[in-house]
TrEMBL record, chain A:
Domain Glucose-methanol-choline oxidoreductase N-terminal: start-end pairs: 216-329
Source taxon at top rank: Bacteria
Protein name: Gluconate 2-dehydrogenase alpha chain
The entry's keywords: FAD, Flavoprotein, Oxidoreductase
Family: Belongs to the GMC oxidoreductase family.
Residue ranges of every copy of the Glucose-methanol-choline oxidoreductase C-terminal domain listed in the record: 428-552
InterPro entries, sorted: FAD/NAD-bd_sf, GMC_OxRdtase_N, GMC_OxRtase_C
Oxidoreductase among keywords: yes
Pfam families per the UniProt record, alphabetical: GMC_oxred_C, GMC_oxred_N
Source species: Edaphobacillus lindanitolerans
GO molecular function: flavin adenine dinucleotide binding; oxidoreductase activity, acting on CH-OH group of donors
UniProtKB/TrEMBL annotation, chain B:
Source taxon at top rank: Bacteria
Species name: Edaphobacillus lindanitolerans
InterPro entries per the UniProt record, alphabetical: Gluconate_2DH_su3, TAT_signal, TAT_signal_bac_arc
Pfam family of the protein (one): Gluconate_2-dh3
Region (Disordered) location: 42-67
Transmembrane segments: none
Protein name: Gluconate 2-dehydrogenase gamma chain
Coiled coil (UniProt feature): none
PROSITE patterns cross-referenced by the UniProt entry: TAT
Amino acid sequence: MAKTLEKVDVVTVGVGWTGGIIAAECAKAGLKVVGIERGRERGTADYQRVHDEYRYAVRYELMQDLSKETVTFRNKRDQQALPMRTMGSFLLGEGLGGSGTHWNGHTWRFLPYDFEIKSMTDKKYGKDKLGPEYLLRDWGVTYDELEPYYDKLEYLMGISGDGKNPFQGKRSREYPTGPMKKTPILERYEKATKDLGYNPFMMPSANLSEAYTNPDGKTINACQYCGFCERFGCEYGAKTSPEITVIPTAKETGNYDIKFHSNVVEVLHEGGKATGVRYINWLSGEEYIQPAEVVVLTSYVMNNAKLLMVSGIGEMYDPDTGKGTLGKNYCYQILPGATGFFDEQFNTFMGAGSLGMTIDDFNGDNFDHSDLDFIHGGSLSITQTGSRPIETNPVPPDTPAWGAEFKKASIENYTRSLSIGAQGSSMPHRDNYLTLDKKYKDAYGVPLLQLTYNFTDQDRAMHKYITERAVEIMDKMGAKQTVGRNPLTDYDIVPYQTTHNTGGTILGTDPSDSVVNKWHQHWDAENLFVVGAGNFSHNGGYNPTGTVGAFAYRCAEGIIKYSKEGGSLV
Amino acid sequence: MADEKKDVSRRDFLKTAGVATGTLVGGGVIGGLIGYNMKGGGTKTAGDSASRSGGRKDEGAGSPNGRMFFTNDHDFSVLSEATERIFPKDDLGPGAKDLGVPYFIDHQLAGAYGNNEKEYMQGPFLAGQATQGYQSRLRRKEIFVQGIRKMDDEAKKRFDKSFLDIEGDQMDEVITAFQKDEVEMEGVAAGFFFRLLRSATLEGAYSDPMYGGNRGMEGWKMKGFPGHQMSYADKVDSKEFQKISPESLGGQH
């Protein structure tokens, strides 16, 4: 028998960036907030032994315990979906701070083009640029509408950047801190791209170039370039994370409490309104109901969609009819790029998650696509994130995968190879979607989320084109041998690619083709908000966290307004 | 003929020294001697025996080194030789055995890694596409024991000798047969076992020495990785390549 707790104003499911931002904003506005987090409490003091590649990067210390819950996957609808038994293609987070603990910190604003991609594409290239199987759409919110929230996020995080991207949308303020250090590796990329007529700039970074105190009074330290960032927590408090910013801010109000080790299994609802959530504390095995005036889904893309599905809220997307909205527009990130082998040695083991330089000349519609069989593109960067020895074994093609020759080549090239890569955009396709699995269940008896996904012709064409540009740049950088990334075949869930999954709970202006409105309010339940990269109609040519954070600020504003006025916000 | 002679001496060595490393060294008698010799520059015999025992050089009463998982010396020796072929000793530095990689793998198989603790292990276990990944009902510890024994069987099948008694290039042939999925295993593909073995070997060569591999940080030294360093803030924009003496987390208390 579930124990019913005292009702609160706002309950968030998951406490990462979105749950943390919403908690901080709502608690500051006087609302009583409870965060339900399935993982444990953690913070800077827990990361003092973090320079351990094996534990954190290889064995995924900070990631989700898949023995309790995973997803199932298939490439296409006529295959049997099977569980992702071990982490691979993407690394799901867990615990306080969520993936905001172990992210690299690339903090981008999507291009104005991204938000109006359908109308801009139709206008410039005609309605048939992509076939009808691509579910391209305007997002229902514009860059200009989001700008104040991007700004707020950057000042919360203290983002370091030089603001020299000629293709960026209008900014109301400069970055709060100056750019990271320009290393010889970055300088080489800068010179090569300039020589080719492109426009390099410093990557906007949440590993900070200098110590910074944000408007909430929270200090983020200066980055030490130790080379342990992605997949690691920062032992120095120099990577902006929820644990060192929004979570303490929320707690200091006295209006915030977090329940740890607590896995939400259902959103309760009645008469078109959410009434709370049901969760299981997996330490005690006890079941609880947390009633709330407002329920906010702030977990990852996967679980936001899954919770709506298992709770029977909204209409599931059906790829046969195109009807239904929940689970559609699942997108990923396409990763063109090139590796160059050099004679000279570089300090590849030093670095920071967002230490990099980028060009946007092949992102969005910053280049003409008239004669190309794809739209969009990606930001193309060199990053110096700190190469670690277990997972960095670059060898030229035709080198054996093991033995004496492999050993020699992988050691030789560990400090003599550089890579450039794009965060390539990903367009929605009719056959790529999320639904519930009928066979496999999680540790609580709830069905697993099922992912059906494959790369598309659009992806393959874009990947090929940008890889060619990357090869040209690497050649210009003086590599003695340059190797472009292999052409895309079928999506494979085994090798790590990126944890930039998007869609499934998309935002829009019409309930017939979206799950939430522009304030992230669910069309079928006015006191239920869903926020995250799940709201993206497609994935842009950048890492998603900047846009996720801007959405969270906007969602928080919507919740506060709803708490006062009630009703639909649109 | 020379090869034959080498084989005999190898086998004889195993019968005597191999057993000795499994018993007397563990008991501390020769262990103390080896330690003493190593300090004084070592002797050929001491080095060879350490190498044969998976790189165990620093045994002695109260040593943290030892096997937690493999109870059978032969299995452990096959594992050791296979890892050495994957990551051999060369002019750059030590191979898997001298780095303690077999001990690293042994320790890992005894714990969370070997037991797939953080992985989804609920059935049904169905065969899928390669793009869907690992679908075996077996845990890594079971895959390793089966795989190592199959390696020995495969050596006997091809060369009529144990894996421990064949030449290096013959070992490579056996390992390649696993890599190419040419060997039948139960409940798992040989290629999957090979990939686990290869990954685990590299993990043992380059993880922090506190896990039992990367002895003396020699793996890091070969590669030029400085390990655990608090800061490169004053060096990251340097034009020069920085040779930095590595630090281990094991040195931190």
